[in-house]
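In the current project phase, work has continued on tokenised descriptions of protein folds. One protein thus recorded appears below exactly as we store it.

——
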Amino acid sequence: MPGYEVDIVTHRIGGSDFRIRALHNRQQFADPDGVAEHAGVSPASWPLFGVVWPAGLALAEEMSRFPVTGKHILELGCGLGLASLVLARRGADITACDHHPLAGEFLRWNAELNRIAPIAFRHAPWLGPNPALGSFDLIIGSDLLYERDHAALLAGFIAHHAEPAAQVLLADPGRGYAGSFSTLLAAQGFVRTAQRMPMAESIGVPASRGRLFSFLRTAIQE
């Protein structure tokens, strides 16, 4: 890709290999047309979408066995789209979204690398509802709560795009904002459960803190 060094890396998920085009490192930033500035993405955070993070690997592994028949699924902050690729290969009804201007392009390349039909992608910042996106009964994501304001933004986005009966699955390495997020989803009628989730150490977060959070709502509370 012009302006970037990329690698093709292989991840074995659920007994199958997935080839992923990823950025060679997290120090890259090329924005000759000012796309990053227009999108409100800082140079420091710009390349983060282009890495397969430990929580993303853990979520993809969970998606290799999670019951998905009949579910309309959305992956939030899909980045390179590994979990969406796993679901698509299983025949799931999956839409991927991200606010990063390059995420859709990388997702398309990665689908082609794995001989998977194109996956529906929507550019979707969390600042408000996206009427074209629709609503879903399973919403998934990994390592989404790494900044203080993300809990409120993510909860607000889910409020607009979760069906009345819905489940949210979040693979989290333990960055510290899961409690705030849980409180906000509880106000929407979701009940949280959590289980330890093996994942490699992430930046500043020990491997032992990895969790899979499940938020389940059977109906809107009156």
Summary: Residues 7 and 24 are 5 Å apart (CA to CA). The domain at 6-217 is CATH 3.40.50.150 (Rossmann fold). The beta strands are 6-13, 16-23, 72-75, 93-98, 120-123, 136-142, 162-172, 191-196, 211-217. The chain has a mean pLDDT of 89.
